[in-house]
Amino acid sequence: MGRAAEQGKKRIAVVPGDGIGKEVIAAALEVLRASDAPLAFTEFDWGADRYLKDGTTLPGYADESGFRTLERDFAAVFVGALGDPRVPSNVHAKEILLGMRFKMDLYANVRPVKCLDESLNPLKHAKAGEIDFVIVRENTEGLYVDRGSHTGEGTPQEMAIQEDVNTRKGVERVVRYAFELAVRHGRKKVLMTDKSNVMTIAHGLWQRVFKSVAAEFPQVTASHMYVDALCMQMVRDPKQFDVIVTNNMFGDIITDLGAALQGGLGMAASANVHPGKTSMFEPVHGSAPPLAGKDQANPIGAIATAAMMLAHLGLAKESEKIDRAILEAVRQKKTTADVGGALGTKASAAFIAEQVARD
Ligand SMILES: NC(=O)c1ccc[n+]([C@@H]2O[C@H](COP(=O)([O-])OP(=O)(O)OC[C@H]3O[C@@H](n4cnc5c(N)ncnc54)[C@H](O)[C@@H]3O)[C@@H](O)[C@H]2O)c1
Questions:
Q1: How confident is the model at residue 7 (pLDDT cuts 50, 70, 90)?
Q2: How far is the CA of 287 from the centre of ligand 1 (A)?
Q3: Sheet holding 76-81, edge to edge
Q4: With CB atoms counted within 10 Å of each terminal CB, which end of the chain scores lower, N or C?
Q5: DSSP assignment of 36-91
Q6: 285 lines ligand 1 (CB under 6 A)
Q7: How far is the CA of 285 from the centre of ligand 1 (A)?
Q8: Isopropylmalate dehydrogenase-like domain location, by residue (predicted)?
């Protein structure tokens, strides 16, 4: 598309990545185009194929110029999934995905957990409508900073230390983001989950910061739960949750449990946000190598992620159309097999795109 034709459109950098990432992103782009959202897409071939061909992960990774280009030239980045068994070190995925999260400082990873239909609900004792909350995961610190030491490798004295880095600035901004999200979406409660009874130093900081930020939002009820208890409660009584905020590692783990509550990884969407900066949107699932190239991957996680991206970009009308079409696909079982349908990736996306175009 030429510059003239692009005028007035928001530019989106698209990184399909590896495995089913390529299929679900193609599916989501079809739906985005059907929505008539004013977007202009530029696709990048970053992923295992490119890495194996010329050793490039994300061009401009080392001097960070690649990330600055994304921030300068694009309104958002839309990513499929990264990870390929031919790259056992996973270095390309780390540099592309964690690179964006860390070097673009996308500190809030927002993962909604919403069960759209009774047919997707894995719980006997709760209704689908009772599973509706948002997890906000810290995205730039914690155990993910890849710091630590390793001594005495192979000896009985071997010791491996992995450092959990939590800064006041990092904790405070993500906790505040969670409260602001609650206010913006009319949600009444924010719960912080940690393991401060054991990780007294790192999570002691989370405790202090959470209490002080909570005091700024008297209209929102603030509470706390240890992460082990939270896992049990997410299964036993999910309706009690509204917004949950947590550190990077616990957020990674509890959002997979959250995905199971919404019908599986194929349904789960996520946004990696720094308010006011170019943010990145990706489905929660990985590249699922055994499913790749078979037209079996569920595209809904990626399509719901596209809807989150539109909402973030201020395109609420188009975003809502996509959400309505997803709901219709789920209700009519115009879906892939993992959520009870009999369609392939392409046909499921085509149904959703048709609904969107008609809306
Ligand atoms: N954000 C990311 O890009 C991301 C996230 C997780 C894992 N990974 C990478 O993906 C690769 C595979 O990892 P994994 O197997 O642990 O996780 P995965 O999410 O790829 O797959 C886990 C399970 O969920 C199923 N699944 C996932 N997405 C699905 C979809 N859209 N439709 C239907 N079923 C779906 C898979 O078949 C598999 O059974 C690894 O290289 C891993 O590092 C990448």
A1: confident
A2: 5
A3: 39-43, 10-17, 76-81, 279-281, 271-273, 108-114, 132-138, 243-246, 189-194, 221-226
A4: N
A5: T--EEEEE---SHHHHHHHS-SSTT-TTSHHHHHHHHH-SEEEEEE---TT-TT-H
A6: yes
A7: 5
A8: 11-352
Regarding the beta carbon of 295 and ligand 1, being less than 6 Å apart is answered no
- Tokens 């080392």 -> residue: 62
Domains and CATH numbers, the chain: 8-107+274-359 (3.40.718.10), 117-136+166-267 (3.40.50)
Cβ contact 298:96 at 8 Å: no
Which token pair is 257? 């449990």
195 included as an active-site residue: yes
Rg (CA), the chain: 20
Known catalytic residue at 252: yes
Looking at 94-156, list the stretches that DSSP marks H as alpha helix, in order from N- to C-terminal side: 99-103
Query: What confidence tens digit (pLDDT) does each residue in 196-245 have?
Result: 999 999 999 999 999 999 999 999 999 999 999 999 999 999 999 999 99
Q: Would you say the CB of residue 266 lies under 6 angstroms from ligand 1? A: yes
Q: Which residues are registered as beta bridge partners of 279? A: 76
Structure tokens at 110: 């927002």
90 lines ligand 1 (CB under 6 A): yes
What's the mean per-residue pLDDT of the chain?
96
Instruction: Return the bridge partners of 210, or none.
Output: none
Identify whether 117 is a catalytic site residue. Answer: no
| 60-81: burial string, b at 16+ Cβ within 10 Å, e else | ebeeeebbeebbeebbbbbbbb
Residue spans of beta strands (DSSP E) within 158-257: 159-162, 189-194, 221-226, 243-246
Distance 3 CA to ligand 1 centre (A): 36
Residue 167 to residue 156: CA distance in whole angstroms: 34
Ligand 1 centroid vs 134 CA: distance in angstroms?
21
Given the structure tokens 């943010």, which residue do they identify?
279
Say which of 51, 107, 144, 177 is annotated catalytic. Answer: 144
